[in-house]
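ARCHIVE CARD
Drawer: 12
Card no.: 0347
Subject: one protein chain, sequence and derived structure
Cross-reference: see card 0346
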Amino acid sequence: MSSEHPLLRFGVIADPQYADVDPKLEHDRFYRNSPNKLAAAIDTLNGEDLAFVVTLGDLIDRDWESFDRILSVYDGLRHENVLLPGNHDFSVSPERLAEVHARLGMPAAWHHFSRGGIRFVIIDGNEISLFSTPQGHDRHAEACTRLEELEAAGAINAMPWNGGISERQFSWLEQTLADARERGEAVIVMGHYPLYPENAHNLWNGERLVDLFERSGNVIAYLNGHNHAGNLGHIGSTWYVNFKGMVDTETQNTFAVVEVYQDRIEVIGYGREESRSLPN
């Protein structure tokens, strides 16, 4: 196929973080404005030829009831809707924590699918965290231990609003990448937390995933939100693209269309999101 024709195109949204609460001016976050921004983004994306639209976590800022308002906006999306949770999506009552993935219509907390000859892999960086399981849960205890170890080591990302993945999920990811490599598929991994460059928002065990991607050699991009300022990095064959948070600023929007070509990835930014050309 000519390098001038994309293998596929898809939309990207990060961190709408809706709640019916007053803005947090010190962080420039306007929670009530996100449904209108999301509706405007969807209106634009509906005019594009896309395989799907992914939202990279933090659909809400807090409260289970917030899901009703923000998810109803996606009813207007004509494309396949791929959702995954961020840390704020677990800012709900303890008895609701186990329902978050289902509320987002996910087939599993981590999963993969193929579109246009590309393998897309969704990881769950909330798995080992202080917020995705209640106190007394094994994973909550493991999260406490991990955070204490990171704090003792002086890690920049030793923050209670970050999370990590289990050995079980890591093994699954390793096997999924190996399977894609055997089939000759390029891979795009998507999650809420950044992995690289080093940042206070990064996944607790993000370095292991960066090393895995470099060894695998077939991960062409990792896409995430969480760090609302956005970021970009490149190691080996993998681009690390951190999309900006929609909830930030009173009126400016931010979202993107990603085009995957044989020889490059094009990010077409809207609003505050930057456009980028990322060669393979």
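Annotation on reverse: The chain is about 25% helix and 20% strand. The chain has one domain: 8-279.
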